[in-house]
């Protein structure tokens, strides 16, 4: 496939030093000119948070041919916003985020900074894709998934994405069997806060917990694809409206005394 | 309408001291027993962020008959998670959040901590509603909307909500003409970062900007209802999948060499 030189914006939520970011840069540079704006440290779990109460700083990190990177003290969404407003000379052809160290499948999309940045790219009407590997280790092995991630970027550049839609891509550990397009799995985190007492005799809590799958064996979810060894792709909407519920709720009694 | 005594969890993103929170507590106490867990300070723009890198603290703030409140050093989503895991003796009948000082209509739902908490309540499968007033002032006048907000809570308790669906309620300034159930408006923030230089000669940026409506006059959006003087309700889905796009994207060439 012939690929014209593209402009690619990359961010992540594990920070500028993360191995997964370096791997995504490695893939992206084959497509053209790359701008990276990534948090200066880990901003996991930042969702689509924006920094409103503090100023944000940008610092040039690296510059080579067709490649520039910046670290940013803000959130992943701040990184995308700053790139669009302060750094890009034209709209990029694609926004990519990751590769996240750890799964962003199912309900994790709501908490994920990786996917927060992707949704921000989509709000800017640029094709946007988030990549995650189901391995949270700092030295996770991204190699087996890279050829698939490259194809997903190539196909996104070639086909575009439906209006208001971005992609949530998750890869299993090890050699994937292929790619499966699925819906967002239904589940939730069951929190198990750990209560500790500090040296001043005050309590504090660490968040922990486990994921509870509530799909009862459905075979059309991202989590099912991952469990079967496939890379999952979920097309994600910026419009969160439950359009079917509008007529139902219109029948409620709001306006009578 | 006869209302049985309910258990109500309240949070917000403007913090435990906000006037909007006091107004929502005032409405909620008519329905039953209230537990408040709110950020100890403003956590605006926190979206569905969770605190993973730091521990979180809870502090009892007030306790009277059928009413207990806590301040929390975490995000609005942390507040909901801690309430469910550490403080509630049973699942609440409803989770309500707000009243936010400022609009959370349209694309603001993605950045809103108020709505982040509501989506968390919905992930916990409890009927959840977020309330916002289109006035960001600390002493905003919530009075004209309170009777409508009370009815929305009463109707939510009476009817329940469709599975995986919560409500984003926004009120205009002044006396509302009534309530309108709408879709999420299409638009985005046009950022206008303000660059300044600190006393050490380093640059920093403040986020600012304005909202750009991209709906071209559609009359079925939340923003249109607000502009016409109505309170808008948008039913919001936890499942962000673009189900229609799955078949399209399945035709892409992922698996061939």
Descriptive account of the structure:
2 copies of one chain form a homodimer. Chain A is an alpha/beta fold and 257 residues long. Chain A has helices spanning 19-28, 76-87, 113-123, 143-159, 222-227, 245-250, and strands at 6-11, 32-39, 58-64, 67-72, 94-101, 128-133, 165-171, 179-181, 187-191, 194-197, 203-206, 209-213, 231-237. Chain A has a 9-stranded mixed beta sheet, with helices on both faces. In chain A, strands 9-12 form a two-stranded antiparallel sheet. A two-stranded antiparallel ribbon of chain A has the order 10-11. In chain A, helix 1 (19-28) crosses helix 4 (143-159) and helix 2 runs parallel beside helix 3. Chains A and B meet through helix 2, helix 3, helix 4, strand 9 and strand 11 of A and helix 2, helix 3, helix 4, strand 9 and strand 11 of B.
What fold name goes in the CATH topology slot of chain A? Stationary-phase Survival Protein Sure Homolog, Chain: A
User: Nearest-angstrom radius of gyration of chain A?
Assistant: 19 Å
What is the helix tally of chain A? Answer: 6
Which stretches of chain A of 5+ consecutive residues score pLDDT under 50?
Answer: none
CATH C-level of chain A:
Alpha Beta
What fraction of the residues of chain A are assigned to beta strands by DSSP?
25-35%
Count of separate structural domains of chain A = 1
Could you state the oligomeric state of the chains shown? homodimer
